Amino acid sequence: MLPFSDSQDAPSETWLDQLAQVAFEGFEHVDLTDGWLRAGDLDPSRRAELADVLRQVRLDPIALSAIRRSVIDPDRGEDNLAYSHRTIDAAAELGCRIVSVGLHRPLLPAQREALWFWTEPGPRDPNDPDTWQLAVDRLSELGRHAAELGLELSLEMYEDTLLGSGASAVRLVTDIGLDNVGLNPDLGNLYRLHQPIEDFQAAVAACAPVSNYWHIKSYLRDEEPATGAVVAVPAPMESGSINYRQAITTALDLGFAAPFCVEHYGGDGLAVSAANARYLRRLLAVATGEAREWVLARATQDPPVATGPAASPATGPTTGPTTGRATHLPDEGVPS
Asked: Of 7, 67, 195, 273, most Cβ neighbours within 10 A?
């Protein structure tokens, strides 16, 4: 729900209006990111109101993302750990299947003042054995709690944290060693940085086998070799600089079979997220072979029915690819 402001204390009628906009854009699933509502801090009656609103608009809350609540924050780590436990309980009560957490911390003043916060340096995790073990211990604790409630825990990748590269993120998941704990390979967080970055496709290949959720978005990125200057600004997935056609095929080939959360910063983030979901469905149809099967089946029709992706951009093909992963996306429509 990134395009919507903090609505913690808003009446349920406001929640209804906001979630109705998400449903109107064509979404059937939603990520209840805590930048919009901190479900773990709602009292039971308010959570019941939220559940009722979700039923009214027919949105399935497949995930809940807790943002900037690092359990190894040197100042707030223990409080964030307790908050994360409350969030897991609330997610289970609301019918979510995934809780996404990360190790990134609140924005610093310079980041809050910048047009795009990633252009300013933020907090950096130390990478010493004690900090690493603390992360393993506390995230394992959350993972066990999630497992008791039938939930998966997903760890969001983010720069300057122990989840800040493909190798480090995979190692952390491996050291935790729980079947219900995986990565959220939000590699867009790394791609947008105004500095040298890890190869995107190589990172996808490294992370996909241990990933169980994916916040997904794109940017236009330009690098000036002579000066080292970098510019990165948000862009729709279809027109950004990241080759998601290759990335999605790679991820599925390596066994990724989890939900996506489409995101976009700036402008009409909800509308762009909806466009991202339609684009992603097309890429999934290609990666699963549905697109090829549909094209070949269409060729046998006499006369052919012009109902392919280009004929109905808002809803996708009427008689085209409609099965499998391509239509079972929990496209929560608004980012966390």
From this structure: 273
Are 217 and 188 spatial neighbours (Cβ–Cβ below 8 Å)? yes
Residue 45 exposure: Cα atoms within 13 Å on the Cβ side: 2
pLDDT of 308 strictly over 90: no
Q: Which residues contact 147 (CB under 8 A, 6 or more apart)?
A: 178, 179, 180
User: To which residue do tokens 């085209």 refer?
Assistant: 320
How crowded is residue 45: how many other Cβ atoms within 10 Å of its Cβ? 7
Question: Tell me: the pLDDT tens digits for 204-239?
Answer: 999 999 999 999 999 999 999 999 999 999 999 999
Contact between 116 and 233 (Cβ < 8 Å): yes
* Domains of the chain, earliest start first: 12-265 (3.20.20.150)
Can you read off the two tokens belonging to residue 58? 């027919």
Q: How far apart are CA 142 and CA 149, in angstroms?
A: 11
**Residues in Cβ contact with 121 at an 8 Å cutoff, skipping those fewer than 6 apart:** 108, 110, 111, 160
Query: What does the pLDDT look like over 91-119, one tens digit per residue?
Result: 999 999 999 999 999 999 999 999 999 99
Q: Where are the alpha helices (DSSP H) in the chain?
A: 12-24, 44-57, 77-94, 109-113, 129-148, 166-176, 188-191, 200-207, 244-253, 269-288, 290-299
Cα–Cα distance measured from residue 31 to residue 335, given in angstroms and rounded to the nearest whole number: 7
pTM: 0.89
